[in-house]
Structures
1.
Amino acid sequence: MADASLLRDSRLDALGRLAAPLGRFAALLTIALALFAAVLVLFGRNPLRAYADIFSSTLGSAYGVSETLVKMTPLILTALAAAVPSRIWLINVGGEGQLFVGALCATWAAIHLDGLPSFLLLTIMAALGFLGGGLWAAIAGGLRAGGWVSETISTLLMNYVAILLVNFLVFGPWKDPDGVNYPQTVEFAAGAILPMLGGTRVHLGLVFALVATIVCAFLLARTRWGLEVRAIGGNAEAARRNGIPIERYVLVTMLIGGGLAGLAGMAEVSAIQGRLRPSLSPGYGYSGFLISWMAGGHPAGIVAAAFVLAVITAGGDILQMTQALPGSVVNILMAVVLFVVLARQAGRP
């Protein structure tokens, strides 16, 4: 009886830990949607109709659901890129740049190793994408570990460097000679394209994202490594005095976070674009950072938040037709969500 009671209490505790980030996300989203509804009313629009249009266009058909999942994939990975370092109070704002570097490294493999079998080529592309994004983030981690530059500043500035590096390559050495002067690389060979799932545009990258979420949750909650990460996050000085190498964890968490963002870049360039372009990402790295904050870095909350923001992003175009609103109105909603998240953080005791 005692064992059964302990098991029941353990399960209730686990459900409580799961419900907390989901409840936090639901509360923040409700406030943001209410504020955005007020904005729509000021412009003479019906907010209930606008929200109905968004959700019906994305969740009302198989195509809408598949497009939502396509946008959800990089959002999960870039959110994890911010969430993993945040466990030791590191602020990784560089998911966008890490995504671009991961895409760049994967593109190198797709262009120069296109004779390899598809499985081997995709494995190398994924590994290089992860490694490229991870090492790009590790630069900022090394600067922080050495006490030279805040990772918040370095990761933010390195976004622009990564994007300009991609621009240099697609406008220069890697430019497709048959691309009608458009800045892009040559089209990838069929072996460098991630498989699609179920005859839709949903690709294997979604599996990468969900597996990465599960692995991160397990490592952080069920391993000694995760215990030491929590110890650093709880009290860095006490962790240092107990022999935990904080500088090493700064580098490792940034490496893992950047690698996940780089994996998102590999999936986008392989499955969606089919070649490297400057327009690779509409800001997935920044949206992922927002998702991580909304979910408090919790893996379950990240998946839920990524799904809802993917719905909003995918349904933004429909508002142009039904409400005569510009497509950029979705950016206003994203900004409102960000302000709500920041206000909550500032209001904490």
2.
Amino acid sequence: MNTTEQTVAKYLLDIEAVKLSPSKPFTWASGWKSPIYCDTRKSLSFPEIRKNMVNSIVTIIKNNFHDVEIIAGVATGGIAWGAIVADILGLPFVYVRSAPKDHGMGNQVEGIVPQGAGMVVIEDLVSTGKSSLEAAKALAKAGAIIKGMVALFSYNFDVSRNAFEMAGVELHTLSNYDTMIDIAKESGYIREEDVDTLRDWRVRPSVWGTEQHN
């Protein structure tokens, strides 16, 4: 039987929410070269896939976190997922921006966060972990007790695992880059000779493109 990680990886490949291109890498805003492009928001357009992924998030929360009183979504990709999950669980929902608004009330967190409320944060994608943890920090500053975070997909970088451990934030993901490579190989989406190149990127993402694709 396929695991949730394998099932979600296949979903993302099937609907082209993930594209793997080791020979013609993508360029991130940071300047890093990447053989993968991931847009988990496409999953929202497929009702059955959306339903199954939401149910997986709910299961993770029920199995791993106790005394959860509120759900938060990280803008923008985590907002829809978080709102649906909160609705299923019958819990309040808020969302957090990457930075406070520069007009109006200047809010970074939208919604009501009761002081000391146990919160699970929903994120769509974790790369280095920096922006996700900054969102969690802003929510904690607003008064929440962060129980943990659930993300749809992670690149499984060592830097992100270390960052979450250092911050004391428990992270669970529906799927990840390593599982994605395995599923892509099994399905014939990538060639056998591309596997080592793709795995090397996860280990050394900041230098991968400059070394191999100049």
3.
Amino acid sequence: MVSNFHLPPTGFGPGSQPAPEDGTELAYMELPQNMRSYSMHVPDAPEEADVSAALELLEKIADAAGLVAIDGGRARFDLGRLDAANRRLMAETLGHGEVAMRLHGIPAVAVQESVFAGVWVLKGADVDAVEVAAVPREAGARAALPRRVATGPRTALTPGVVNAPPLAVELFDRSATWTPEAEIHVVNLTLLPHTEEDLAWLDAALGQGSTEILSRGYGNCRITSTALPQVWRVQFFNSMDTLILDTFEVTAMPETAIAAPEDLADSARRIRAVAEAIR
């Protein structure tokens, strides 16, 4: 009898593996992509046009960014007074950054962060301006203006609503007792058991505010104000648009939408460098 020592090992040799046509190709998970990073772009100023007004405005914006980085506050500059050539140069210089906002109300305002963090372009009826700030003033001021009124913790229960009512009580309490000095309070729905009916009930109970924000970067962050003051729905999606974190935040403005002082100071330096290169 031949011992096992002399038998050929299993799983090796001809016939032990599937033929190429019988097997399947390796499927690799899609890697994250399209992450934004700053690279200096120097617009081509038309030789025949006088763009001194745009260059002067860029210098003022850079000075404002430097001051806001140190002292906070904000500064606003009207773009409506520029002629077509200067307005075109400003648009090409400022470009599009990672954060965009829709501010509902009268007038409705579209906000686009420029490639310089903390420098925001605002457009709407009779609105054509640049605002230099950590976040545009109207984004916070309009946040709790109801597009859909909050029905509150006493919203009628429907089948399937299980854990939403105590969450609503917590959020209403945090909203009522909020102060500017209060630390951010987060309710992480991703870690809490809930049903689709719970989410629909919370949506009705908290209502809908007038500020919508999209921050694009390594994936997307979608921020929506509720009709409850200082309460925001903050949802993070990966690069394949899969929801990976779903939260409510009780704060004046979610940090994802805010330009840090360091970013504003950096923007001041970059704007001066671009203006100098244009000259």
